[in-house]
Amino acid sequence: MSSYMELSLDPNGPDIKMSWRTDRDGPVSKPMRLGMDLLRDRSSEVRAALNHLTEYVQRNPDLSEERDPGWKEYSSVLTTLQERGRGLHNALFVDDNLRSRVFFEKLQHLIPGAALTVHCSDDVVTLPLGFVFEGEAPHRQGPPSRADFNGFWLDRFNITMLIAGSGCEQSTLTVDPESFATLYALDKSDLESAAEYLGDDRAKLKLLISVEVKDHYDWDSVRDACIRMREKNSVVFVLAHSNGDWLKLSGSEMDCQRFARMLHEGRDENHAALLVLNCCLSASGGDQRSLLSAVAQRGFCGLIGTEAEILNTHALRCGIRVMWGLCAQGKTLGEAFVAMQSAEDLFPLNLLYTCYAERGFRLREPLPELLVA
């Protein structure tokens, strides 16, 4: 049994060439060709099913049986997601292909919780691999729960997607708090509408945005703050509207290429940076215009983003939990991410996030501004 698998997804004309290995220093398999158009279609179908899950939570935020007798609507949404996840699974595995069968066998020998690290390109196709579904859908009973997602890859593996061109030297992933800065780019109306539903997370957010370079509410101000962070290890936290290409912040819009230039311009790549994008479709987008391009540069350890539409309140709470774990509790990014995805009070929309970043990013010690009695 193995605890690690590494996949590489490389564009090649109308195909994706996929290769793998189960040892970080071991040989890489010969590549297997997968149809890019089919993978795009199956990924779009999965994301459409995830959008239906978000719509369900919007109608029934407490997941109560009173609003959904017998949770029949929820079960229908889940069944559709399982079916679409199985479709994505079938696009990855070709029954009469020897290499495909070998790949499938390697996956079956991974232990529960194994690290699945995927190297991919931001400008061709991204796959919501956490929602690959295998096996038969069990008959569910009772209220919605995390157990309903047994059989999805997000339940089997710790999946990390790494974007070609991004990355940090390992020595820079552990950050001295004195060289660290956080920027919160927040849509003011979304923040105000979500604030009353944050509960205990509201106090955490107030403390988090007190740390330099603090909170900003329009792109001009965000740009100025980015300039001040050029020679800092940093996190840029965004709560904005997005369609996977454009970002809208308090009435002003910015396309993903301009957003990437703003983050990259003048940055010292010897310092590590992380992007937390709390907005719809931040982990997807069209050809050569995905928001993932914002981290496709050395010095960026990656991005935390969503595979589908997500409600503002849930997005903000999920982002706060990641930032609190990272900045106040001494967790690695990976530990903070897992804790956020495991939080029962954030279920089920916390499952829409994917870690497109190196999980070893961490602060050497918690920020002193956040150490409260």
Level-2 CATH architecture of the largest domain: 3-Layer(aba) Sandwich
How can the largest sheet be summarized?
6 strands, mixed
- First-last Cα distance: 45 Å
- Beta strand count: 16
Number of domains: 2
SS-based class? alpha/beta
Strand numbers in spatial order across the main sheet: 8-7-9-13-14-15
Question: What is the typical, i.e. mean, pLDDT?
Answer: 92
Under CATH, the topology of the largest domain can be stated as: Rossmann fold
Query: What is the H/E order?
Result: EEEHHHEHEEEHHEHEEEEHEEHHEE
Taking pLDDT < 50 over at least 5 consecutive residues as the criterion, the unreliable ranges are none
Number of helices: 10
What percentage of amino acids are in beta strands? 15-25%
How much is the radius of gyration in Å?
A: 20 Å
CATH class of the largest domain: Alpha Beta
How would you sum up the global shape? globular
Helix content: 25-40%
Describe the structure in your own words.
With 373 residues, this protein is α/β, with parallel strands linked by helices. The chain folds into two domains: 2-163, no CATH class; 170-370, Rossmann fold (3-Layer(aba) Sandwich), CATH 3.40.50. It has helices at residues 36-59, 72-92, 98-108, 153-156, 188-195, 201-208, 219-228, 256-264, 312-327, 333-342; strands at 2-12, 15-21, 32-35, 110-120, 157-163, 174-175, 180-186, 213-216, 233-239, 241-242, 246-249, 252-255, 273-278, 300-306, 353-357, 362-363. The strands form four sheets. It has a six-stranded mixed sheet, with helices on both faces. Strands 3-2-1-4-5 form a five-stranded mixed sheet. A hairpin with a 3-residue loop joins strand 10 (241-242) and strand 11 (246-249). The N and C termini lie far apart (45 Å).
